[in-house]
Specification:
By secondary structure, this protein is of the alpha/beta class. It folds into 2 domains: about 130 residues, Rossmann fold, CATH 3.40.50.720; about 180 residues, Rossmann fold (3-Layer(aba) Sandwich). Helices cover about 35% and strands about 15% of the residues. It contains 12 helices and 12 strands. The strands form 2 sheets. The protein has a 7-stranded parallel sheet with strand order 8-7-6-9-10-11-12, sandwiched between helices. It has a 5-stranded parallel sheet with strand order 2-1-3-4-5. It is globular.
Amino acid sequence: MRIVVLDDYQDAVRSLACFSKVSGHEVVIHRDTVTGEALVERLQGAEAVVLIRERTRLAADVLERLKSLKFVSQTGRPGGNLDVAACTRLGIAVGFTSGSARSTAELTFGLMLSAMRHIPLEDRRLREGSWQTTLGRALHGLVLGIYAPGNIGSLVAGYGRAFGMTVLVHGRDAARERAAKDGYEFVSRERLFSECDVVSLHIRLLPETRGIVKGSDLAMMKPDALIVNTSRAELVEHGALEAALKAGRPGFAAVDVYESEPILGAKHPLLAMDNVVATPHLGYVERSNYETFFGTAFDNILAFAAGKPQNLVNPEVVKG
């Protein structure tokens, strides 16, 4: 098969042990993101495409022009980046993979530590010739708010507890049940934002959760509080975080996600703020997680080619 891997920014896929699984196939790897005609041209002749999360969007108008495409292997589960209904209509099977929640949870806590102790800022200033320019805060004894405690949020809550933090939880009914099970206090939205020293967002991006965090929520936070977002930038009302940080509530932010990715040339307002720790969507970008994601993505392609499809989002395509 001709397999095309899109958006491998770091050229990491060919370094993975699991890459040997597709050694008998023609594999083309692209490191940049393109759209429109350039994307259609790039995918001509492809029988299978590997999508790295939501980096490239395959809409119906693109899919309709890919006459050779038989299989899309999505790392993770398809979101708004892939028109699954169009795939089904066109007879294109879609496979999914699962990854580890730990990689994102660990990064979340790393960002929390980095922001509260001003590690990136102090590192930069030390290299510039300064010495001890900030006064950080220890996490022990602070209040950590988790919105909401799914697979990743629950791990972060556990890390917070291990560091001696008080953990408060907010979310839907499932969050209330999970909080009770894990021994955390479930609180109102108002208490989460107004009482917590750190608020970490772990909400799945859905049409109903887009912009769920408002400027009014951020305005309730303490002047020395931190908000952490390793989920999706679109969960926060457009422009609200930048405005809130300039207004001083909360005082700090740590972000791993942006409304439009990749961010190149440092062209984002958050990157000009010393009270922001920013990383380039590294939550799931970790070697063992990549081995799991791509190992399964390649297995899905090989199983489909062998007539034994697995992990399909739209199994009706092969049943028909």
